[in-house]
Amino acid sequence: MPTHVRVAIIGSGFAGLGMAIQLARHGIDDFVIVERGSEVGGTWRDNTYPGAACDIRSDLYSFSFAPRHDWKHRYGRQAEILDYLRSTADRFGIRPRIRFDTELLEATWDAVAAFWRLHTSTGELTASVLVSAAGPLIDPVWPQIPGLEQFEGVRFHSSRWRHDLDLAGLRVAVIGTGASAIQFVPELQKTVGSLTVFQRTPAWIVPRGDAPTTERRVRLFQRFPVLQRASRAWSFRLAETRFAGFRSRAIGGLMQSFARGYLRRQVADPQLRAKLTPDYRIGCKRILISSDFYRAVTRSNVELVTESITSIDGREVVTAGGARREFDVLIGGTGFNATEPPIARLVRGVGGVTLSEAWAPHMEALHGTTVAGFPNLFLLVGPNSALGHNSIIYIIEAQVDYVLKALDAMSASGAAFVVPTAEAQRRYNQRVQADLAESVWVSGGCSSYYLDTGGRNTTLWPHRAALFRRSVRRFDAKEYLLEPASAPAEG
């Protein structure tokens, strides 16, 4: 591996592989991927819990330039998505450019040399351009519960699943009922002795509507790729229509009535149904899709507890009412901290300021991709670029194209670095926050991982996905400083 490259990419999930492939197709071969794991895949490599699957249809949850015609289900399972990422890395010859088992320890902008100095677990590397494809959902988060660290049974997070542990017949507790938990809880219910699910806030859930892929469909897509492209376009437009429920109270009310009716049909017990009924507008938290979670929590070996956990004493979980329940295994379905991405603590820009420091009290970027004070740094799935209704792959591809346009602008102007102006970033984020102000994510009456500790939505794009792509369809040099190496990179 070289010690200096034009572009260094952090992470080899969808974003990292997408960036690398398009760099190569764009004629830029001088790049490397720094990957802390021993395989590609990102979140689809790490999250191997039972029932792990995607909430976006398979036709859409894949690269537009690398379609797969033989998905086994309408919604892809974890193993199949990981296989897709592996085969895509091989197909485009990316694997030799990946430094596996290499963790980024720190990345520092060298203003004199006008490049990034990367300190990694396997050595030093410098790069003219740094692309962070290390998504925010990588390091698990546990709630602050007294005694949690001293739990005397077996404890693990869903993103670090213990496949070596036989759970058959054991007393198992699950903390959380988010997107991961509603997938693995139905699987656990089938094998464990007893399952207690601790729920802080119920989620609006709609049926998955999954189905196996027919052989006829596979043959048609293989023989007529235009049909697969049409299916992808249809899936995209269908997903885009859901956005209307986030902006319109009337349409959101219809969605909510549908979800409430689904709950009523699935759960006959009125007391249990009341525990599972949210008291906020649909869409305020992530809408979850499952056709078996409700059925699972009605089974005789499952208890749903809505009292808050006050402490953990030995093997016992103590709740607010004083009840004590003893368990053999404690599983965290408590997700990740999306508003404080771990990589922000590792990247130092102009003057040695970290991204975390620059993002206090709120993280922000220009077009969700570049940050003032951090020259030649590009973020994929950065602040306010995630979606609550459509495929993140669509956003990633739009951002990758934007990065390529920025690199072209640098080459055309002879610039050694490009950095957004603080004013352009400020104006952009004022518009984003103004557009978010009346959205269901801010005014829907809930607290969610979309919001940071100050209550600002720093994760979601406030419009339809197509409008994000339109917003980055060209690189506007007026929003940036493009300067030769001798100029100070202040931003």
Structural summary, described in words:
- The protein is an alpha/beta fold and 491 residues long.
- It is 31% helix and 19% strand.
Question: Can you lay out the helices and strands and say which pair or pack?
Answer:
Layout: E1 4-10, H1 14-25, E2 31-34, H2 43-46, E3 53-57, E4 75-77, H3 78-91, E5 98-99, E6 104-110, E7 115-120, E8 123-132, E9 154-157, E10 171-175, H4 181-189, E11 194-198, E12 205-206, H5 215-223, H6 225-241, H7 244-247, H8 249-266, H9 270-275, E13 288-289, H10 293-297, E14 302-305, E15 309-313, E16 316-319, E17 324-326, E18 329-332, E19 347-348, H11 355-358, E20 377-379, H12 392-413, E21 417-420, H13 422-436, H14 440-443, H15 465-471, E22 480-483
Parallel strand pairs: 1-2, 1-8, 2-5, 6-19, 8-20, 9-18, 10-11, 10-18, 11-14, 12-13
Antiparallel strand pairs: 3-4, 6-7, 7-8, 15-16, 16-17, 21-22
Features:
single chain; 491 residues; alpha/beta; FAD/NAD(P)-binding domain; 2 domains; 8-stranded mixed β-sheet; 5-stranded parallel β-sheet; 15 helices; globular
